[in-house]
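Q: Convert this sequence to C-alpha cells.
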Amino acid sequence: MDLAVLWFWIVAFLFVGYFVLDGFDFGVGMTMPFLAKDDTDRRVMINTIGPVWDLNETWVIVAGAALFAAFPEWYATLFSGFYLALLLILLALIARGVSFEYRHQRPESQWKAWFDRMIIVGSAVPALLWGVAFANIVQGVPLDADHNYTGTLFDLLNPYALLGGATTLLLFFTHGAVFIALKTEGELRARAKRLATRAGVITIVVAAAFLLWTGVAQGSAWFWGLAAVAAVALIGGVLANTRGKEGLAFGLMALTIAAAVVGLFAALFPEVMPASNDPANSLTIANASSTPYTLTFMSWTALIFLPLVLAYQAWTYWIFRKRVTRQTIEAAAH
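A:
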C-alpha cells in the first residue's frame, strides 16, 4: 500500500479512537443536568471518567500531530479555514478540563455550580462542532488555487453540516448515558438506562438522516457498507441497553461511532479536502501528503510506539473497571 494512503487510514484510526473515547466523556458531561439529582450524583458521574478523560483527549493531539506531519497541506488548509470553529472547540476543552480539576477545591455550592455549567457547555460545544467540521470536510468547502478556504464561519453552518453536528451531539450524548449505566449502580444507573433509551431513539432518526444524505451525495459502496454496520450497531446498542446489557450496549455504541467515522473517511477518499467551487482546487491524498522519507520515518515510529500506547490505555481502563457508587463517594468525603 502507498504510504500516503496508509497514513490517511492511520489518521482515520486516530479520529476513531478520539471520538469513541472522548465521545463518552462528552456524553457524561452533557447528561449531568438530566441525571444528577444532587452533588453526590454529580461527583459520581465525574468520577466515572475522572481517571481517563485526559488520557482520552490525547488522541486528538496525536491525530492533529499525525495530520501535520503526514498531510501538511491538509493541516494548513483545515486549521486556517476552520480556525474560529477549532478555536471554540479548544476553548471548550480547556474550560471542561479546568472544571474537572477546580470544582472540588471549594465547598460552596455556587462555586461548584459554575464549574458544572462549564463542564456541560465544554462537553456540548465540541460534540456539536466536531460533527459540523467533519461534515464540511466531506461535503467540500470553497478553496482557491492555493488551497486556501475562501468562505466564512457562517458558510460552515449550512444545513448538512448542522445535521452532522446534531448527529455527533446525539451519538455522544447516548454513548455517555450508556457509559453512566455501565459504571454506576442504583437509581443513577436506572435513570441513565432510561435516558439512553429515549435519547437513542432520537439518535437513530437523526443519524439515519445524516448517513442517508451523505450516501446520496458522496457515498461509495464502502460507505454504504459501513453505514449499514453503524445503523445496525446503533439499533442493537439501544435494544441492548433497554434489556440491561450495558456492556454490550457500550460496545455497540463504540462500533457505531467507529463505523460512522470510517464511513466518512471512505466517502472522502481519495480526497482529503474537496473544493466545492472547483474540483481542480481540491486537496487529495497525493497532493497533500509529505515526502516518502517523512512518511517512512513516521511509519516506523508508529509501528514501535502505537502498540505501547494502546497497551497502556487498555491497562488503565482495566485498572479502573469497577463501578462508581454513591457509597464510595460519600465515604471519601469523610
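The mean pLDDT is 92.
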